[in-house]
Amino acid sequence: MSIPPPSTRVRAAGPPPEPAASGAEPPAGDRRREICLELPQSRGWRRRSGQLRLHGSQLTLTQPGVLRESLLLAGGRVEVAAVDRSRGTRDGAHGRFPVLQRLGPNAVLPYEQGIQGWLWTSLSGSSLPTLCDPADTPPNFALIFVKPLSDEEVIRCFEPAWVSALADRSPLGSPSVAGLLTVVADVSSAEDAFRRFGVLGPLTDREVPPTMRRHLPGDRPADVHVPVHDRAGTSVAPPGLG
Q1: Does 215 fall in a domain?
Q2: pLDDT at 146 over 50
Q3: Inter-residue long-range contacts of 50-54, CB under 8 Å, 24+ positions, other chains counted
C-alpha cells in the first residue's frame, strides 16, 4: 500500500478548533494581502511560468499554454484545496491525495485506518484535468470546486486543443472541469495561502465521489467501525480549519 508523506497523514489530535462564525470576515490585513504562487514553467522553451494569485476573496489562475485568458474565481466557488508533499518520483505504483472517510462534520477517519481511494495515481491518473506538462507529471496541489466550471468559462478561458482533449476523454463527451490538478513551486506557501483563504483541508468522500476516486493494489479500505469512545481522538478539523 502506498504511504503518503507526513503532511497527508491524519494523526490523532485533540478536539478540533471551533469553526468561525458564519459570515465572519477575515482580518483586514488578510483581505488586503495579495499572495502569488508560482506554477513551474511548462515544457517548451517559449512557455512561461503560470501563477495562482489570491487577493481578498478572489483567486486568479494563469497558465500559458493551457489558459488563453486568466481564470477568475470567487472564493466561494472553491470547495477545498489540498496539497501533497510526496516526493516527486516515477518509480512504482503510487498515489497522491488520499481520499479519507468523513465520520461527521468535525471528524475524519485517520489514514492509518484505511482510505476510500486516491484522487490521482501513477497507474490511472485522475478524473480531474491537469495543468501539468507533461500530463503524467505527479501533481502536488489540487482544487475541488463547489460545482464544475460552466461550459462558457471552459471554452472562453482554456486553449481549444486542451478543451478538445478533455472532451475526448470525458464519458459524456463534454469538457467538464470539477476541479484542477497542478504543481506549485512552493508547497509550504500554498498551504499558508489557502489556509488564509479558508479552504485548505484533507480530501474526503464528501468532496470526492466514487466516480472520481482511483485505487491501487494493496490499498486498505476505510474501516468505519471505529468505537465511538475512540472517535474523539481521531477527530480533525474540517477543511480550512486544520
Answers
A1: yes
A2: yes
A3: 50/131, 50/182, 52/184, 52/190, 52/193, 54/193, 54/194, 54/196, 54/197
Contact predicate 76/146, CB 8 Å? yes
How far apart, in whole angstroms, are the C-alpha atoms of residue 82 and residue 59? 15
Hey, what's the cell of 3?
Answer: 504511504
Q: Determine the structural domain holding residue 145 and report its residue range.
A: 77-234
Beta strands in the chain (DSSP E): 34-39, 50-55, 58-62, 71-74, 78-83, 95-100, 102-104, 107-108, 117-121, 141-145, 179-182, 203-204
Amino acid at 236: V
Domain count, the chain: 1
* pLDDT tier for residue 106 given thresholds of 50, 70 and 90: confident
Pull the grid cell for residue 219.
Answer: 490499498
Sign of CA dihedral 91, 191, 195, 153: negative
- Which has the closest alpha carbon to 129: 89, 88, 170, 99? 170
